[in-house]
Write a structure and sequence with these properties.
about 200 residues, Beta Polymerase, domain 2
Length: about 200
């Protein structure tokens, strides 16, 4: 379903009932272990392909498009899924962007009205999670801070890689369960990033 981008509920994992409530369509259980692969130098190129597709679909309604998540950090092993953050004026106003994204091949999978009006789409070609937020949403800056910190901090990048590798070897019913299990280490890393900023 998701990845570290959605590991954000202050250590409170989502229940199956909560997952069902926000999933558009069928909630798919994991049928195999979480796959973590070595960093692929093609990931930034795959992001650019998707970013161009989004720009083509939305034009100036796409206020910001960022590569986020582990595939955006050189040298970091990751699930081979390109995470993209898209900022629109108001993500709750689905009529203003959802039909255009669907026409470009994206399919809406998550609708979280209670959490920053987050929407998540799966991509048409590369395995992509497209996360949509509103202009001014604090979560966007949190995601970019996490990405930028891991890009510049070898110690925390290695800590995060080890954590993901260990958790990937465990059994999870849903991908979100794996993502939620990383919350504690993500928050520790973000605390160091924030402290360095101040």
């Amino acid at each position: 379903m998701s990845n570290e981008i959605s590991s954000r509920r202050a250590g409170q994992p989502l229940s199956e009932e909560q997952l069902l409530a926000v999933t558009v369509g069928k909630l798919e259980p994991l049928s195999k272990p979480v796959l973590i692969v070595d960093c692929d130098p093609r990931w930034p190129e795959l992001f650019e392909v998707e970013a161009n597709r989004i720009r083509g679909a939305l034009g100036d309604r796409a206020l910001r498009i960022e590569h986020a998540g582990s595939t955006s950090v050189p040298g970091l092993p990751a699930k081979p899924i390109i995470d993209i953050v898209l900022v629109v004026v108001n993500s709750a106003e689905e009529d203003s962007y959802v039909p255009s994204l669907e026409a470009a091949g994206y399919s809406l999978r998550i609708r979280e009205a209670e959490w920053h009006q987050h929407r998540m789409f799966k991509g048409p070609d590369a395995d992509t999670n497209l996360h949509v937020f509103s202009l001014g949403c604090e979560e966007v800056e949190r995601l970019i801070m996490f990405r930028d910190w891991l890009r510049s901090n070898d110690v925390d990048r290695d800590l995060y890689a080890r954590t993901k590798g260990a958790l990937a070897r465990e059994d999870w019913k849903y991908m979100q369960n794996y993502a939620d299990a990383k919350t504690s280490v993500i928050e520790q890393i973000l605390a160091r990033a924030r402290a360095k900023r101040s």
